[in-house]
Amino acid sequence: LLARRITRPVGQLAAAAATLAGGGRPPPVAAPEGGEVGELAAAFNAMVARLEEAERRRLAAERQAMAGRVAAAVAHEVRNPLSSVRMLVQMVHGRLAGEPGLARERGYAEVVLRELERVELVVQDLLDLARPRPLVRRPCDLGAVVEEVARLVGPHLAHRGIRLVREVEGDPHPLEADADRLKQALLNLLLNGAEAMAEGGEIRLAVRWPTGPRGRVAVAVRDHGPGVEPEEAEALFEPFRSGRPAGSGLGLAVSRQIARDHGGDLTLAPADGGGTIATLTLPVGGPSAAAAEAAP
Fold this sequence. Notes:
Elements: H1 2-21, H2 35-96, H3 103-130, E1 138-139, H4 142-159, E2 162-169, E3 176-177, H5 179-195, E4 201-208, E5 216-222, H6 230-233, H7 251-261, E6 265-270, E7 276-283, H8 289-294
Parallel strand pairs: 2-4
Antiparallel strand pairs: 1-3, 4-5, 5-7, 6-7
């Protein structure tokens, strides 16, 4: 009885402590419930779990810091030549405007300009990953933001055979936000959804307002791609982690940071009937809305 309740557990604790001191990962220490030895084993197991979580967070922070430095270097190297290319294509596009016989070539120039916008979005994502920009909060017309995003992404969706359907539920409430950053986040979500739909189809963008003055507005983007497994969804928010071979793995990470900077969040979930729903939430009202919402 003494060996089972005291001697053996203490020996296991000593062996586990030696493994931990040597940089190893000891298995959980089993001990009878109750009594000082059991409490000591439970405290030791909890300490090991906290140390493992702290190490995981440290490694993740180091990886993200390194990724940020690389991202900033790449973005700065690409940004200047990209601006030069855009300027030259805009000049060509403008000159083709007065040539009725060159309508097809003008269309080609427009395609190049649209694709340059996508490249510029990736470059901005790289810069935001490295050095997030501070928010510039102003009274924000979310409907106008959605309208502008739909205008920008419309030609790209049409080219891929995708129809954008928009919905609004509830009455709008005052919203203070950085409209440019929200536009960036929604563009990322729509482009992600489009990339997941190789066969074309329909993307649904729904804005759902809360019923009261304290709450959150939700902007949901639902695609009809292959979907995402619930246990894999959170990993897709890690920088440079993508569910597609050709994806940059930046859009979701940056978009979630934008949402959280506003006091909201961004989540992924499988949709009923297939596909994925990305839901971005924002507190309605002013900058203190998130704190007020959390208050009892």
